[in-house]
Amino acid sequence: MSTTRRPVGRPTADTLTDRYVWAVLKSLPESKRTDIDRELRASIADDVDARVAAGATPDAAEKAVLTELGEPMRLAAGYAGRPLALIGPDLYVDYVRLLKLLAVTVIPIVAITLFVINALTGAAPGELIGGTVGIVISVGVHLGFWVTLVFALVERMGVAKKSGLKDNSPFDPDDLPAVATGTTGGRSELIASLVVALLVPVALVWQQISSNFEEADGSPIPVINPALWSFWLPYLIALAVLTGTFAVVLYRVGRWTWPLVAVNAVLTIATIGPMVWLVATGAALNEAYLDRLGWAEFVAAGSPGATIASIALVAIGGWATADSVIKTVQADRSVTRG
């Protein structure tokens, strides 16, 4: 004969204690419910008995004890170690710092680029200003959303706690980290890498469905060559995800090592190599979009624009690899001195 197992803590009677305990337990993982159910009920019973012994009625004592315990959701968050704020105190400073950094770097670059492009296409003054402002606002909203999302996920995955930080602990100068000598850039660098890993697929999809140029039927003309969706764009999106994963691994290791340098070099070559080839052969950008700009000849295969862009990409990849090597050498020297 089979019996149905009652979930731990689910009320079988309409007592305040049963209802309160279930309100706490229902938002906790099953693995924690049994112990917390037993612990919480025992604590409530002891406090109720103490109040009854002091002269209170059982009903009044029970209500007073539960009132003192407070909102069940807040108590459950305490048991689970889960923050009740979107961005908690452990990450808030890094969160604000990264938002400010992106605001003063990415947004001005986007604004100037769009203004120049629209000016070269002969846009009217109103369209020139309005179009630039509209897209800049959209970029700002996206930056704020994705940065906040990544920080919230990191908060809830417990990265701050795993790194040894203490919630709401007073500042102690003795806790200041040593001057970095080849170590990683810390949480800010991790979050920046994760944001980039998210923004790459978002930007690629966004440029496909939103453009300042349209076909005769009203469909947007994407900046990137649509034919690349057959392989290269999904490939680059996958590499962006792998790069974000690598940033998490680097953060957990805490310093650059030679195996990590090798992985970083492979990821860099795998990303920059195809991009250089696509740019150099003139296959990266959409010809229809370039025709609207009047730039088709400037960025065609073998053109000055394609050559300059290819050299810039190689320089970026070379610097990323060289920087990891320099940091690894510095880290090894620091360990040797230590």
Account of the protein in words:
This protein is mostly helical. It has helices at residues 16-25, 30-53, 58-69, 72-80, 89-120, 125-157, 159-162, 187-209, 232-253, 258-280, 287-293, 304-337. Helix 2 packs across helix 3.
Task: Write a compact overview of the structure shown.
The protein has 338 residues and is mainly alpha-helical. It is 69% helix and 0% strand. The chain starts with 15 loop residues before the first helix and ends with a helix.
Distance between the termini: 67 Å
Class from helix and strand fractions:
mainly alpha
DSSP helix fraction: 55-70%
Strand content: under 5%
How many structural domains? 3
- Count the helices. How many? 12
What is the total tally of β strands? 0
What form results from the Cα inertia axes? elongated
Supply Rg: 28 Å
Q: List low-pLDDT spans.
A: 1-9, 162-173, 175-182
Order of helices and strands: HHHHHHHHHHHH
Q: How would a textbook summarize the main sheet?
A: none
The overall pLDDT average reads 76
List the helices and strands and how they pair.
Elements (H helix, E strand, L loop, with lengths): L15 H10 L4 H24 L4 H12 L2 H9 L8 H32 L4 H33 L1 H4 L24 H23 L22 H22 L4 H23 L6 H7 L10 H34 L1
Helix pairs in contact: 1-2, 1-4, 2-3, 5-6, 5-8, 6-8, 8-9, 9-10, 10-12
